[in-house]
Design a protein that fits this description.
Elements (H helix, E strand, L loop, with lengths): L6 E4 L38 E3 L5 E3 L4 E8 L6 H9 L17 E7 L2 E7 L9 H14 L4 E7 L6 H14 L4 E6 L6 H12 L6 E4 L8 H10 L18 H14 L11 E9 L6 E10 L2 H8 L4 H18 L2 E10 L7 H6 L3
Parallel strand pairs: 4-6, 4-7, 7-8, 8-9, 11-12
Antiparallel strand pairs: 1-12, 2-3, 5-6, 10-11
Length: 357
C-alpha cells in the first residue's frame, strides 16, 4: 500500500418446450430433429446451405461482417451477454443499474464471420445531463448497426420501460432487424420463461425470438448464429485475436469503477466516475506498470463512503481492481487511487467533457 487518507496504492437443465401461441420465428429451447432447422423469420442469405452446429442453416461460401448492439432497460444483462459472446471480459458488469456508460465494442471471431457487438447504456428516463447524453449514445448506435437485440430479463415483468424502448425500436426496425432476447433464464423456471416469450412477442414484431442465459452459456452460440445471419457479406474489419477496440486506459478505468460499485448505496453508483491520469511501465522494470487513477464523486459525504473507515474500503477497491487489470494487461500493477469531489459533475457540461462524456 502507498499513502494514507484518501489514497490507496497496491502492488502487486431441463428447458421449456415451445409454448403454444408463439410464432414460427421463436427459437425453441432444445435440440431440433437431426440437428437441422430451417431459417425462420426475416433474413437469410443466398449461397450453399448447411446445418450449423446449433441447428441454424448457414452458408459455407460467404464471409459476413458487421455490427450488432443489445438494448434494453438498465440491468437487463446486456454487458454480461456481450462478455459471454466475446468469450472474455470487455464490458464491466454490476448488479447496480446504469453501469454501462460507454459504447464498448466486443469482437467475435468466427471462420464464417466477424461480429462486432456494441454494448450500450440502458435506455432510461434521464434526470441529468449525463443521462440525456447516454440516451443520445444509444439512439446513435441504433442507427449505425446491422442488427439489434432487444433484451428483457426472464425474472422481471415487461413494463412501460420495455414498451417505450419497443416503440423507439419500431422506427429502426423498418430498416434494421430486431431480435427479441429473453435473458437470465437461469433465474426462473421453464413456465416463466415460456410466459415471458409470449409477453415479449406481443410487444413488437421481431425477426427472431430466443431465450438465453449467459451464466450457463445456454443458447449463446445459437444467438451468435442468428445475429450473424443478419450481417452483410464482407471481409474482416479487425485483425485476428483483437477482442475490443477500446483503449487500455478506458478499460482500466472501467475495471476500477466496477470494483468501486460493489457494496455501495443505491444512490452512489450514478455519482461515480473514474479517470486514469497516468499509466506507464515502471522504469527499469519490464513486468510492472504504474497506474494512477482518480475516482470522482459529487459530494464530500460520498467521498467518505468510497474511502471507508481508515481507508479500508478504498484498499478493497484497489485490490479487486488490480487483479482484473493485471489479467487485462498481462503484467504486475502498482495501482494508486485518489478520491476527488467533482461537485455535481453529472449536470456540468464542462466537467462531463473532461470526464469523457
Amino acid at each position: 500500500m502507498k499513502g494514507t487518507g484518501d489514497r490507496a496504492g497496491t502492488q502487486v437443465e431441463a428447458h421449456p418446450e415451445t409454448p403454444a401461441g408463439v410464432g414460427t420465428n421463436f427459437r425453441h429451447i432444445g435440440e431440433h430433429p437431426a440437428g437441422v432447422a430451417p431459417l425462420t423469420g426475416k433474413g437469410g442469405a443466398p449461397g450453399r446451405e448447411r446445418a450449423g452446429h446449433n441447428g441454424v442453416v448457414t452458408t459455407s461460401d460467404v464471409h459476413r461482417s458487421g455490427f450488432a448492439c443489445f438494448v434494453g432497460r438498465p440491468n437487463a444483462g446486456k454487458s454480461t451477454l456481450t462478455n459471454s459472446l466475446v468469450g472474455t471480459k470487455v464490458a464491466i458488469t454490476s448488479s447496480k443499474p446504469q453501469t454501462t456508460r460507454h459504447a464498448i465494442r466486443g469482437i467475435v471471431h468466427r471462420p464464417d464471420a466477424q461480429l462486432i457487438i456494441v454494448d450500450t447504456p440502458g435506455l432510461h428516463r434521464p434526470r441529468t445531463l449525463l443521462g440525456r447524453r447516454l440516451n443520445d449514445l444509444v439512439y446513435e448506435t441504433w442507427s449505425e448497426v446491422d442488427v439489434v437485440g432487444f433484451c428483457v430479463p426472464a425474472d422481471q415483468k415487461i413494463g412501460p420501460g420495455d414498451r417505450f424502448i419497443a416503440e423507439q425500436l419500431a422506427k429502426v426496425g423498418r430498416r434494421t432487424p430486431v431480435l427479441g432476447i429473453v435473458t437470465k433464464t437461469d433465474l426462473v423456471g421453464k413456465e416463466q420463461v415460456a410466459q415471458q416469450l409470449l409477453d415479449l412477442q406481443r410487444v413488437m414484431d421481431f425477426a427472431e425470438l430466443i431465450p438465453v442465459s449467459a451464466v450457463d452459456s445456454f443458447q449463446i452460440d445459437l444467438l451468435a448464429d442468428l445475429l450473424v445471419q443478419q450481417l452483410p457479406e464482407g471481409p474482416q474489419l479487425y485483425p485476428d485475436g483483437e477482442l475490443t477496440d477500446e483503449p487500455e486506459t478506458t478499460l482500466v478505468a472501467e475495471l476500477i469503477r466496477e470494483a468501486a460499485l460493489e457494496g455501495v448505496r443505491d444512490e452512489l453508483p450514478h455519482s461515480l466516475a473514474v479517470t486514469v491520469e497516468e499509466m506507464t511501465p515502471r522504469e527499469g522494470r519490464d513486468n510492472l506498470v504504474d497506474v494512477y487513477a482518480v475516482i470522482h464523486v459529487e459530494r464530500a459525504s460520498q467521498k467518505a463512503i468510497v474511502i471507508g473507515r481508515g481507508g479500508e474500503r478504498l484498499r478493497a477497491v484497489g485490490s479487486q481492481a488490480r487483479r482484473h487489470i493485471q489479467a487485462l494487461l498481462g503484467s504486475k500493477i502498482y495501482l494508486d487511487l485518489h478520491v476527488k469531489v467533482s461537485k455535481d459533475w453529472q449536470r456540468d457540461p464542462k466537467q462531463l467533457r473532461k470526464l469523457g462524456f
